[in-house]
């Protein structure tokens, strides 16, 4: 009857909720300031936060499955994350 939520899933989802809250807050700031220059500054700040959240959630997830996944597969996951970060680098 009751569902038990894993701590790892809870931590990952909490980080994503915080990230979404930051995004909404940034959008509200853009509307409040009503200036393109300030909106670009706020948007640039979000570009720093996004990769940190991505790395944090990925790291938490990998720690949660460390016993179930081989070292080679973990290297592939980290390589994939590195490629994503390299691809979106400005």
Topology:
Blueprint: H1 7-33, H2 36-64, H3 71-87
Q: What does the radius of gyration come to?
A: 17 Å
Number of domains: 1
Count of distinct strands: 0
Largest sheet: none
Rough outline: flat
Helix/strand structural class: mainly alpha
Low-confidence stretches: none
Oligomer: single chain
**DSSP summary: helix tally:** 3
Protein name: DUF2619 domain-containing protein
Pfam family, one: DUF2619
Keywords: Membrane, Transmembrane, Transmembrane helix
Structure, explained:
- This protein has one domain (7-87).
- The protein is mainly α and 90 residues long.
- It starts with 6 loop residues before the first helix and ends with a helix.
- The model has no long low-confidence stretch (mean pLDDT 91).
- It is flat.
- It has 3 helices and no strands.
- The longest helix has 29 residues, at 36-64.
- α1 runs antiparallel to α2 (36-64).
- InterPro entries: Uncharacterised_YqhV.
- It comes from Neobacillus piezotolerans.
- This is DUF2619 domain-containing protein.
Key terms for this structure?
90 residues; mainly alpha; 3 helices; 0% strand
Short description:
The protein has one domain (about 5-85). The chain has 3 helices and no strands.
């Amino acid at each position: 009857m009751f569902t038990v939520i894993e701590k790892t899933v809870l931590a990952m989802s909490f980080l994503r909720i915080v990230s979404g809250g930051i995004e909404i807050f940034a959008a509200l700031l853009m509307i409040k300031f009503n200036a393109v220059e300030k909106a670009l500054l706020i948007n640039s700040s979000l570009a720093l936060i996004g990769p940190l959240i991505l790395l944090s959630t990925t790291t938490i997830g990998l720690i949660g499955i460390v016993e179930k996944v081989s070292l080679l597969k973990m290297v592939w996951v980290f390589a994939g994350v590195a490629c994503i970060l390299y691809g979106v680098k400005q």
